[in-house]
Every structure is written in structure tokens, then in C-alpha cells.
Amino acid sequence: MKKINIKGPIISSNDQWIYDWFGIEAVSPSKVDQALTEAGEEDLEVIINSGGGSVFDASDIYTALKSHSGNVEVKIVGIAASAASVIAMAGNSVKMAPTAQMMIHNASMVAAGDYRDLNHSSNFLQNVNQTIASAYKLKSGKEYEELLSMMDAETWLTPQQALENHLIDGILFAEEAPKVVANQSAELLPPEVIEKVRNGLMEQQRNQVVNNVVGKKQEGEGKPMNLEQLKNDHPELYKQVKDEGHEEGVKAENARIKAIEELGVIGSEELVTKAKFETKASAESLAVDIIKAQKEQGFNFLKNREVDAEELNNVEGSHTPENNGSDTDEEAINVMAAFGKSKRGGRN
Questions:
Q1: What is the b/e burial string over 305-323, where b = at least 16 CB atoms within 10 angstroms of the residue's CB?
Q2: Averaged over 113-119, what is the pLDDT?
Q3: What pLDDT score was predicted for residue 178?
Q4: Is the dihedral of CA 302, 308, 310, 313 positive or negative?
Q5: For 162, phi and psi rounded to 5 degrees?
Q6: Minimal CA–CA distance to 81: which of 132, 15, 24, 149?
Q7: Where are the domains of the chain?
Q8: 80-103 in b/e burial notation, b at 16+ Cβ within 10 A?
Q9: Contacts by 170-173 with C-beta closer than 8 Å and gap 24+?
Q10: Which residues neighbour 7 within 8 Å (Cβ) at sequence distance 6 or greater?
């Protein structure tokens, strides 16, 4: 009996290599097709633990399993939600672990435009719901209206409830079941991540990676590619990534130097030079250092004034002149002369 795992999000075959690249468990039609080719006419044991994903790719997998010449035994060991529940309906025999869950709901999509566009999207989704319900109807024998009502309500089913609704044929023994997963999220990579990865690689390099991944899967390795493998197996791609990283680094460094030079604070040239070439500090942290330095300079200036004033007050016969209009210019000159004489050790 050939075992096929339906685990992780259900994705398109075009995206499978990206998930493999990051070492993220996922399943696509091409992955199932490969397993079916290896199985030949053997019976299948399909293990499901998936929160769902792409409806049309799930339909592709459902059709492939339904068309298999051998017996197809489906075991829901964790969760079969959304599109994954459609795949489960392909089994000649469908069983759930006592701790497993099944969830059926309406298809969804992001739509934009005027009322005509939105009406079109609504009609499209209703048609998709009808086709999804067909899989449930074929398995359970229930009427479309009841199934569509259950989908409208986003119905979660325990193994017993799924059995009562004839969506499964039996419940597995408790010792076969893993821990319950209480999250229906399919853990799909965001579309913007998919596009960024796809657009960031040349088509030729992408094909090389796909062939490499498929070859390793066939050899039974199935490990995500690391940096050393990328460097050895795909030197051109490695160089591209490295060059782009260098370019971004140069841009960032130029922006840092420019921001530092724009501070332009006189008297802080030494701090600026160190920030540029030694400490590699940001403009923000340099600005803080400059403020601290200026504050310290101001404190030292005031301290020196206090010391000078104290020495003036210690000159015999005089005190530090006050600017109150009572001292004459001659008296101030005599005081300063006496202070200068004391600093020279009494010499004229």
C-alpha cells in the first residue's frame, strides 16, 4: 500500500518549489501525481492533516485520487478543513481519528470593481460552492440545499458528527490519533512573498532549482537547500543574490554617510570622523553624542569661569569686580594687573 500525505497548505504546482525551498510542508497536484505514478495500481493510504488552501488545486488532487484504479483509504488524523475536506471525499473509505476535526465552508476571494464586477464575483463564488458541494453530495448522499446551508454556517464537525452526516465511514482508534489542531489556518505564504521570490529569480535559475528539488525528492533526501548548496550547485544564482546584497549595502552606507554630513555641527569634526570610519554609528546616535559633548563642553566652561573667579577673589586687596556701575575702569585694570602678577610669581 502506497502512503500519500496531504499535509500543510494546498498550493499550485507552480508554487511547490518555493515551499520546498523554505522547507515548508505543503502539497500540490504535481506532488500527488508523482506519488500516484510511483504507486502504479497499488492501493493508497491518504493521510490528511491540512487547513485547506486553493480550491481548484484541491479539485485537481480530488480528481486524481478519485480516478485511481486501486483502493483509496483516507485517514483524517488532524484536521481536514476547507479544500482539504474536499480531497477527503475522494476516498473509498474515509475515517477520522477521535481527536480530529472536519470543517466545510464557502469559497472566498478578494474582489474589486463596480457593482457589475462584484455581482460577477458573487455569481462565480456561488458556482464554486456548488461544485464543492458536489463532492460532499457524492459521498454523503445529502441534498445540495442542506450542504450549502452547512457551508454558509462554516460547519465544524467532530468525528461523530461527520459520521452522522455520512461524510466519513468510520472513526479510528484513539491511539492512532495525534494531538488536536484547533486552528483552521492553511498557513499559506502571503501572495506578496510568492511574487517577490518569483520575480527575484530568473526563469532559467528557477527551472534549475525545480529540477534540483525534484531530483533530491526522488533520491529520498527531501532536505531544504542551504546557502552552501546554493553556492555550489547554482553559482550564478548565488552571485546574483550576493551582488544584490552588496548593492543594497552600498546604498545603505552612502545614505548613512550623507545623513552624518548633513548634521554639519562645527566643533564636532572628530566625532563625525569617528562615526564615519571607525564606530560606523548612525546619524541618530551621532547626534546624541554631539549633544552630550556640547553639554560637557558647556559644563567645563562654566567650571573654569568659577575657578578663575575664585582666584581673582583671592588676590590681596580686591574682589572680583561686579558690573554694578560702582567700580571705575582704573580699579578693574589694577585688579587684573595684580592677578596677572600673582600668576607670574610676583615678577614684573
A1: eeeeeeebeebeebeeeee
A2: 88
A3: 47
A4: negative
A5: -65, -35
A6: 132
A7: 2-189
A8: bbbbbbbbbbbbeebbbbebbbbb
A9: 170/93, 170/94, 170/95, 170/96, 171/95, 171/96, 171/97, 171/98, 172/75, 172/77, 172/95, 172/96, 172/97, 172/98, 173/98
A10: 25, 27, 47, 48, 49, 50
Least Cα distance to 13 among 26, 25, 2, 29 occurs for: 29
- φ, ψ at 274 (rounded to 5°): -65, -40
Lowest mean pLDDT among 80-89, 176-185, 271-280, 282-291: 176-185
- Which triple of cell numbers denotes residue 51? 487547513
Strands 93-96 and 170-171: parallel
Tell me how far the alpha carbon of residue 325 is from its chain's centroid: 74
What's the one-letter identity of residue 316? E
Q: Tell me which CATH code domain 2-189 carries.
A: 3.90.226.10
CB 129 within 8 A of CB 104: no
Residue 173: closest CA among 96, 101, 102: 96
**Is-contact 91 43, C-beta < 8 A?**
no
Kindly report the length of the chain.
Answer: 348
Give pLDDT, residue 186: 53
Determine the Cα–Cα distance for residues 37 and 290; give it in Å rounded to an integer.
Answer: 70
Q: Is the Cβ–Cβ distance between 104 and 128 less than 8 Å? A: no
The grid coordinates of residue 150 equal 452547512
Q: How many CB atoms lie within 10 A of CB 164?
A: 11
